[in-house]
TrEMBL record:
Protein name as it appears in the record: Integral membrane protein
Transmembrane segments: 32-50, 56-73, 121-144, 150-168
Tree of life domain: Bacteria
Alphabetized UniProt keyword annotations: Membrane, Transmembrane, Transmembrane helix
Organism of provenance: Micromonospora yangpuensis
Keyword Membrane: yes
Length: 185
């Protein structure tokens, strides 16, 4: 019995530590939205304050890509922590309890909300609107206005490819499943 309590205590300590990491990542991820908006404003201010420098718009995709990748990585780690608690840590703790009652019910219960799927689609739209739409718009404005220096055009095409990859990854990791049926989500 003593080893079960010790093991259970260790599992609860792990849970507390991993939830703290998840909280920190959520705060950091959410602040990336503000950093992105501030960065976009700074780039647009630089573009608007200089005449005939539409090539400065090429800074916007670079900035939003870096922040978007960072947002995506943190969002995936947040989801991975929840998945780990639901599929690994929780079941190990349940195995130690005499009554076999589920542990950490909230980790699965909040995924059963019937509106979860629509919220996830809306969140994907917000993420794409924040990290994909502005750089694409900046690229279009650049392509319409120039200057058409070969280096700038090449940079813009590379940025468009990177934005495409970011879009694909955001959609891939959006966790659009309706509920907890798939324990890997």
């Amino acid at each position: 019995m003593a080893s079960e309590i010790t093991t259970g205590g260790l599992l609860l300590a792990e849970y507390a530590q991993i939830k703290e990491e998840q909280r920190n990542r959520i705060g950091f991820r959410d602040n990336l939205i503000y950093a992105t908006l501030a960065s976009m404003a700074a780039v647009l201010a630089a573009v608007l304050s200089s005449k005939d420098r539409a090539n400065l718009l090429l800074l916007l995709p670079a900035v939003t890509l870096v922040l978007g990748w960072t947002y995506l990585v943190n969002d995936e780690k947040i989801s991975a922590i929840g998945r780990y608690v639901r599929t690994d840590l929780g079941p190990r703790l349940v195995a130690l309890t005499p009554d076999g009652q589920p542990a950490f019910g909230w980790e699965s219960a909040h995924r059963s909300d019937p509106r979860r799927s629509s919220r996830k689609y809306l969140q994907l739209a917000v993420d794409l609107g924040t990290f994909v739409l502005p750089p694409v718009a900046a690229l279009v404005v650049y392509w319409v206005n120039g200057p058409y220096d070969a280096l700038f055009v090449a940079v813009s095409l590379v940025e468009l490819g990177a934005v495409g990859v970011l879009t694909w990854q955001m959609a891939r990791y959006a966790d659009l499943a309706a509920g907890p049926a798939d324990p890997t989500n």
